[in-house]
Design brief:
The chain is α+β, with helices and mostly antiparallel strands and 319 residues long. Helix content is 42%, strand content 17%. The chain folds into 2 domains: 92 residues, Phosphorylase Kinase, domain 1 (2-Layer Sandwich); 207 residues, Aminoglycoside 3'-phosphotransferase, Chain: A, domain 2.
């Protein structure tokens, strides 16, 4: 399922000369021989950098957001390196002297993203799905007392309202105006009639990746070798990540889905209940609505989000 939706943030263009100057702040004796922008990613701008006269490639990651994002990613790379496969961050720079953005130098991991792997091979090995579930459960061992964004030390901030209020907020905002009236009405009715589901969904809050999609999972030799792009990490219900991972039905064949959940429950502090899929779809509806709530016009993205909302809502009503 190819993703042709628009980026969340515009690409930050970096040429060879600028890349060389940025790298030299990390290692003065490094000379950049070649740079290549990674095609994936919707927010940050990422470049593969080849160092001259060395068998070494690095990732130059440029952030459109405030500098605390890269500082948070650095903390995560240190905290989680023995827990999940996460690229090591070697260097970060927030002084904005060469370019007006913060950037980091990150370990380059060889492999392809899971979505690309599935499309190339027309398969999703159950053993790989199980491994992904196992690693995600380990990430979710870190608990918080409520939902929220995280600062650069992974402490909660007060920048997010309670998840229970997200649905009404989005439906009364720009997102609601972009939905078909019939979809909006059915969604409002479902939310109003299923408060018990919402309460159970938000019973516990854990450290979530925040963008746990196949596009951010790196695979090599049928193994998970890297979980990428941690800028959206936050405290949320575990269903936040699970809903994103299982969002694309075409990837989630019966055996794959079962293997993923078996792997998750084998390492989970709190194993998932039988209605995990319903709770995950409900949580992911809020994520999908948040995309529709943006001010910019991104017709391809919004069309995709609305189609996914219709599918999720159909599943929730029927189950």
């Amino acid at each position: 399922m190819s993703d042709r939706t628009e980026r969340v943030n515009k690409v930050i263009e970096i040429n060879l000369d600028i890349a060389d100057k940025l790298i030299k702040l990390y290692k003065a004796d490094y000379c950049v021989e070649k740079i290549e922008r990674f095609a994936g990613g919707k927010s940050t701008s990422n470049y593969k950098v080849k160092i001259k006269d060395l068998d070494l490639e690095l990732v130059l990651r440029v952030y459109p957001q405030k500098s605390a994002i890269c500082e948070k990613e650095h903390t995560l790379s240190q905290k989680l390196k023995k827990v999940v496969p996460i690229p090591e961050m070697y260097y970060l720079n927030t002084d904005k002297m060469i370019i007006d953005k913060s950037y980091s130098i990150i370990e380059y991991l060889d492999g392809i993203t899971l979505d690309e792997y599935i499309e190339r091979n027309n398969k999703f090995p159950e053993s790989l799905a199980r491994e992904i579930g196992e690693k995600l459960a380990l990430l979710h061992h870190t608990e918080y007392h409520k939902e929220g964004l995280l600062d650069n030390n992974l402490n909660l901030t007060d920048e997010l309202p309670p998840i229970l209020l997200w649905y009404k907020h989005f439906l009364n905002g720009i997102a609601g105006s972009r939905l078909e009236e019939s979809t909006k009405s059915k969604l409002i009715k479902f939310i109003e009639n299923n408060n018990d589901l919402l309460i159970r969904m938000t019973k516990k809050f854990v450290l979530c990746h925040g963008d746990f999609r196949p596009a951010n999972l790196l695979v090599k030799d049928n193994k998970l070798v890297g979980i990428l792009d941690w800028e959206f990490s936050l405290s949320a219900p575990c269903y936040f990540d699970i809903g994103q991972f299982t969002r694309v039905e075409e990837y989630m064949l019966y055996g794959v889905q079962n293997s993923f959940i078996e792997g998750y429950n084998s390492n989970a502090k709190y194993p998932l209940t039988d209605d995990w899929r319903k709770l995950s779809k409900l949580m992911d509806l809020a994520n999908l609505l948040s995309f529709l709530n943006a001010k910019d016009e991104k017709p391809n993205l919004y069309q995709n989000m609305k189609a996914l909302i219709d599918k999720s809502l159909e599943f929730l009503i029927e189950n």
